Amino acid sequence: MVEQAGLTMKLLQMVLQRRGLCTKREWRVKQVTKSNLSQTLESLKPQISQSDFVAVSLQRTGSVSAPWHRVFPFDTPQTAYSKARFAADKFQVFQFAVCPFSVRHSKVVAYPYNFHLFPRDELNIGMPSYSFSCQTSYLTSMAREGFDFNVCIYDGISYLSRVQESAANAAIGNPIPSNNVKTSSSTPSVADTVFKGRIKSRVKHWKNACGDSSTRTEDVLSKFMRKLILGSEQYGSRPSINLDVSSEHQVQLVLEVLAEFDDLVALLIPSKGGGTQAVRVILTSSEEDKDLLKRELQDLEEEQRKKVCGFREVIDLISASQKPVVSHNSLNDFAFIHSKFLAPLPTNIDEFTCSLRMVFPYVLDVNHLMKDIGPLKKVTNLSAAASRIKRQFFVPIDIEIPHEALSEDKIQGQNVLRISHLLAKLCSILKITPEMIKSDGGHLASALEGYANIFYPHEDQTDGDLRVWTDDTRKVSSEDLVFIWGLSGKMSAGSLKRLLHGSHSVFSGEFDVRMVDRSCAIVVFWQPGLSQAFLESISSNGVSGRLRKMVSEGLRAAGYETYEKACKLGFREADLADAMDKALEEPDHCSEEDDSETKPSSGPSQIYWSRDSIINLDEL
Fold this sequence. Notes:
By secondary structure, the protein is an alpha+beta fold. It has 24 helices and 19 strands.
């Protein structure tokens, strides 16, 4: 009887779990540090290759230093990118979770890993980072989750970006194998012919000396003098010689000469200032010895590359697979990924997206899929999304994690599993079946193409549009927005609107007021042209009544371009009012580059404004 009851309970638990109604068990994520990185990479490579997607999630040391640094509904794509860019340059990534996964029927097959990172200068060349910023709230949150800072610092995986790797190779000066000979179709010049003849003569003379049996009986002094005169050295057990060059053109001429010899292998010795300073020539004893040397050089190059790039090898694996990458808040995540693992971030969002697509052809943000589902339109939090789906939808999708990942004691990096699980559920709600989302031949499934590579806060943004995801929206030009600061005391949007109403003719019509932070408000004029008239009145002191008193007490106003300028120049003041003051003091013609950055590139932007988009100061 007891056994039957126990069996009934197990069956009930299985049914409830199948329906997504039981208490979720703790997902376990494999933790990866420097000590088990090599072993993990061997497992990760085939898992990425065999999966349909790769989910990523980053744990940073900070994000925004002040409330106004967050992305707002009235931010243009360029302004939103500017905020993400400066956060990526300022803060660091301590944990990078990666999860190759596939959706099979009503199941997500996932392989979650959480990599612990630390920007350690392994090569003593000042890279990847001398310093970075931290926010106490982020570190406190990590500590609550059981994050081991000792493991991070002492056993965390270092890395170099692709640009930093190139600089490191030049600084270290490791020889680079070269088999690429670019033969020129044009007639060689007299100088080139003379140079090649001199190199060929020197190489022949050196080879003859190496093969001369009479030199083997010479005394030590005679051997030393012969090596000094010939410039001969030893590369391991093989004879070698360095041929100095002064240009890349001379490098190609040397390689053309060496191609005439079957028993020579060439290595390029980089100079610290860039380019090549010499070609090292190694003499082999046979064809088999030559093949053996090439394999040794390849192994040495791969070992050095792994030592230099560190965690970036994971980024390179994901890139090489061409699999769709799934994230939450892709703009922030991929700004960090680009900055830390690829190259310095460009100043323009279009250049950023073009650069990123060369590495990751398809990026999916679960936020954009949620916007096509009514009850999830305003949800931006992973936990809130899972809770809302559980209450309002029947989506019986389980997660299957291989047992090797379940043996871990720590649960850090679970967001990457939440993202994987959420994508599968969203696709199910949107009637996108597992067969429809399976990628084929490096191409994203057509059912998901409309959600890919959107790095604006909302998917219907273009160079001229923004969208606030609320039920009641109206389009407004950025030219009709005015920022006001220098307010006396604590003031709410409602009280400020009452003060402004009737204080000037421009406020006789319809307008709205919202607080950006505690120091600054934004005013939207629904009638075009009124904003400019208001700004002109403020600047010319052509105001009267209550507004004149407010101006005398320190009230200031500026158009949207000043706010854009403050964001793009990376002002990090705690209050937006202080940043706006600095932006007004900054000259508009510092340089052509700064000028192009601080002015809208395509005229005024169109913004969808909503009366519902009130900023709750209690959350700031």
